[in-house]
From TrEMBL:
Molecular functions (GO terms): ATP binding
Name of the protein described by the UniProt record: ATP-binding cassette domain-containing protein
Residue intervals of the ABC transporter domain: 5-225
SMART domains cross-referenced by the UniProt entry: AAA
UniProt-listed InterPro entries: AAA+_ATPase (IPR003593), ABC_transporter-like_ATP-bd (IPR003439), ABC_Transporter_VariousFunc (IPR051782), P-loop_NTPase (IPR027417)
PROSITE patterns: ABC_TRANSPORTER_2 (PS50893)
Keywords of the record: ATP-binding, Nucleotide-binding, Transport
Highest taxon, organism lineage: Bacteria
Alphabetical list of PANTHER family matching this protein: ABC TRANSPORTER ATP-BINDING PROTEIN ALBC-RELATED
Amino acid sequence: MRQEVRLTAVGRRYGLRGPWVLRGVDLGVGPGTLVRVDGANGSGKSTLLRLLARLDAPSEGRISGRPRTAYVPERFPAALPFTPLGYLAHLGAVHGLPREAAARAAKTWLERFGAEAYGRTPMARLSKGSSQKVAVAQALVGDPELLVLDEAWTGLDAPARAELERAVAERTAAGGAVVFVDHDPRRLAGMPDATCTVTGGRLERRTGGHGAAVAGPLTVVTVQGATGSQLPSHVSEVVVSGAEIGGGRHRLVVPASRSDVLLRALLTAAPPWHVVGVVPAADDSGNRS
Ligand SMILES: Nc1ncnc2c1ncn2[C@@H]1O[C@H](COP(=O)(O)OP(=O)(O)OP(=O)(O)O)[C@@H](O)[C@H]1O
């Protein structure tokens, strides 16, 4: 993922005079980040996810950034006139994979979710749990840069739930972003870079969930930008602290486990940032501010 997706002053209401479901929402989702969205029933979580996935447009405000996006809806249309293998291979091809690679990816994802036995069964005949496996596989088959999951774990058996958690970790480690809603507060506990709560049409954002990582070793990254350039906004979601140290240089302290995410964000910014130094915090001798 090269660029963040950013919602700026976004509002959404259904119908010209309908009540505002979301209003004044500002949210940036950067490369390599995992964001949890929570909130009461009917608060607007799915609305926010559909906006992020660009399946819906805001009534006001702006959305920027167009990563390759995949979405698992809360309700997957199970009765599609395909077999899982045919459907996934077709989607792989739509995502630009050559025919054989698409067929291989389809098979691999069905195997990962324990659904290979019914790869050739018409989808309309699948159980709810089995069609949910196809729903998550269809989102992963094209290696999306942004993965949006609306209650995607619901209906999966335990091994498939664990596999989806692994797939999420793989996506973020590869520099992709994942935004998810799940009714189980333990889902991916401790992993999200931020949790956003939809309440009264507004979004309250809490950074963190990386307690263990922050308690671990820290890395100091010194970077230099072009005159007057601003750090990409999602950098603040990864670093523990940051300070400008003069001459366009910034000294950023980041959990060592997240330094790859920070470096990727800086190097893929437009224009890219020059990395002056990366040292373990214990060896960082100067430039403290
Ligand atoms: N297409 C639509 N047309 C009209 N109203 C809608 C539409 N989609 C959502 N709404 C309304 O917007 C509000 C927020 O719905 P949304 O599905 O985004 O909430 P949610 O937090 O995901 O809910 P849940 O937790 O029940 O899934 C609700 O009042 C809902 O009725």
